[in-house]
Amino acid sequence: MAEHNFIQRKIDVLNKKDKSFAQGWDEKVISLCERINKKENYYTTSSCSGRVLLMLDQPKKSSGLFLWVEHGVVNLENLKKSISELNIKGLVKFKCEPPIIHLVCKTLEDAEEILEKGQKSGWKNSGIINLRNNIVVELHGTEKLELPIFEGGKFLVDDKFLLLLIEKSNQKLEKGWNLIKNLEILI
């Protein structure tokens, strides 16, 4: 990619309107993204520090798929309140997703460098995902959970199980936040 094209594309991407579901920066990943975006040879295109969500069990992304999203620590009261406010009869899945960062690199050498730093800081599921128009690296955590918990207006599991699920999810979120901190130190 020609240097001028890289610089112009970086300016364009960093100035465009946010189209994410969250409609804004995920607070726990802002500092890392800002650090990456200050580097001459990189810019971020999307990021998430990890999240817990409730979503409809359906095969394709569509409007209304995500019913509730939380990027912070979850508790039983908030989870049950969120579900009770939904008027959903279908199957609802609980998901805990790890952090993910997509970034464009100026050269393959830059991609190798960021991948090495990602791996050193614990981002095990990472790689180059595009080489066509841009060199895109995906840094992806591995900690996740996904299972159905609600259907037909009723929970499929009891509070004891929900508490365990929440505890494990909060631990996974914490682990993801540590990945972000570790990578920020290396960059």
Give the integer mean of the pLDDT values.
Answer: 89
Number of strands: 9
Main sheet makeup: 5 strands, antiparallel
Assign the structural class, choosing from mainly alpha, mainly beta, alpha/beta, alpha+beta, or little secondary structure: alpha+beta
- Annotated CATH topology: SSo0622-like fold
Short description:
By secondary structure, the protein is α+β, with helices and mostly antiparallel strands. It contains 5 helices and 9 strands.
Topology:
Elements: H1 3-15, H2 27-38, E1 42-48, E2 51-56, E3 66-70, H3 76-84, E4 92-97, E5 100-105, H4 108-120, E6 127-130, E7 135-140, E8 145-151, E9 154-155, H5 159-186
Antiparallel strand pairs: 1-5, 2-3, 2-4, 4-8, 5-7, 6-7, 8-9
Would you mind describing this structure in some detail?
- By secondary structure, this protein is an alpha+beta fold.
- It is built from five helices and nine strands.
- It has helices at residues 3-15, 27-38, 76-84, 108-120, 159-186, and strands at residues 42-48, 51-56, 66-70, 92-97, 100-105, 127-130, 135-140, 145-151, 154-155.
- The chain is elongated.
